[in-house]
Design goal:
alpha/beta; TIM Barrel; eight-stranded parallel β-barrel; 8 strands; 42% helix
């Protein structure tokens, strides 16, 4: 069973939680210990990556150490085509659709595609969308983004439907690390409703189901539950995992029900 099939099988039963680990923010051994703890508490996958280019210095070793301590799928969350390693199981092959720069929409993807193929990494096609969060986050600054206004869910719906029609399997609504405000529930609900519209034939079968990921600024169980109720299929937490293991445990429990 590949990573996508595992995600599909789990989502049929309950929502998922992914733990995001930035290789630049802790030593490889510490990252592996965090991953093992997240697995014990019920997280469904470990994402590895970040917005800073420096994280590629520790990427191989971090993924290797995580794989030694943890049986969960390791999914790369690359900041560029340089942030790839064949030691992982899969990667989010993503396009930052609301970037102003073609670099993050298609050029990095073009440069990394051969590396993905040569290393046998499973590509999980994803539209990455950055939403206004009350702060200038690293992801928004590095990605040269025109953030989606918080009070304009129709813009997010437009991007999400475009991604669906392109054949992408994941929509990541991202407030960003250090966000003051999380992605609004109204936006999550609007995107989910549009993706599930039975009148839209493209990608309408279960085999073409599009999953909504929400991340950025989720620091407690109540916030995570609110995103799930709004329609999120997957909750991603990163910063809180570094700041408070107890909060991480509570969030995972809330997501998994």
């Amino acid at each position: 069973m590949n990573v996508l099939e595992k995600i599909e099988a789990t989502r049929q039963k309950k929502p998922l939680h992914f733990t995001l680990i930035d290789p630049d923010r802790q030593k490889p051994e510490e990252a592996a210990e965090l991953a093992a703890q997240a697995e014990e508490w019920g997280s469904d996958a470990i994402m590895v990556g970040g917005s800073q280019a420096a994280n590629i210095m520790f990427l191989d070793e971090t993924v290797e150490k995580i794989k030694q301590r943890c049986r969960l799928p390791v999914i790369l969350f690359p900041s560029s085509h340089s942030a790839l390693t064949g030691k992982a199981d899969a990667l989010f092959f993503m396009s930052l659709l609301n970037s102003r720069s073609p670099r993050f929409i298609i050029e990095e993807q073009m440069a990394g595609a051969v590396v993905v193929a040569q290393n046998g990494l499973e590509p999980l096609s994803m539209a990455y969308l950055i939403v206004e969060s009350g702060a200038t986050t690293s992801a928004a600054w590095v990605g040269d983004v025109k953030p989606i206004p918080r009070d304009k869910p129709a813009f997010a719906v437009g991007y999400a439907l475009a991604a669906k029609f392109f054949g992408m399997r994941f929509i990541y609504l991202e407030a960003g690390s250090g966000a003051k405000d999380t992605v609004p529930e109204e936006m999550v609900a609007a995107v989910k409703k549009a993706l599930n519209d039975s009148s839209l034939k493209a990608g309408g079968s279960e085999a073409g189901k599009v999953y909504v990921i929400v991340g950025g600024g989720i620091r407690d169980a109540a916030t995570a539950q609110a995103k799930i109720r709004a329609g999120a299929d997957i909750i991603v937490t990163g910063t809180i995992a570094e700041e408070s293991r107890e909060r991480l445990k509570e969030i995972i429990k809330a997501v998994k029900g």
